[in-house]
Amino acid sequence: MDYVSALLPPVVMAVFFTALIVTIVKTQGGANKAKEDAAVDAAVARAESVRQSAPKAPKTGDA
């Protein structure tokens, strides 16, 4: 019976991992896909604008 106790945790983890992947794949797309994509695009644009508007720090080094 030691083999059962040795194999049970990996089998349980594999089952839960498979269920997680199936859930992730099933929830991709759908009615909210455009709204989610727009939210991501807005966040990326906001991060880019902050990065571009940040003052440039002088470079230090051997010059």
Brief rundown of the structure:
By secondary structure, this protein is mainly α. Helices cover 73% and strands 0% of the residues.
Please tell me about this protein's structure.
This protein is mostly helical. The protein is 73% helix and 0% strand. It has two helices and no strands. It has helices spanning 2-26, 33-53. It starts with a helix and ends in a 10-residue tail after the last helix. The mean pLDDT is 86. Keywords: Membrane, Transmembrane, Transmembrane helix. The chain crosses the membrane at residues 6-25.
Describe the protein's topology.
Layout: H1 2-26, H2 33-53
Helical content (DSSP H or I, runs of 4+): over 70%
Our measurement of the CA-to-CA distance between the termini, rounded to an integer number of angstroms, reads 70 Å
Quaternary assembly: single chain
What's the order of the H and E elements? HH
- What does the overall shape look like? elongated
Structural class: mainly alpha
Mean pLDDT: 86
User: For the CA atoms, what is the radius of gyration?
Assistant: 24 Å
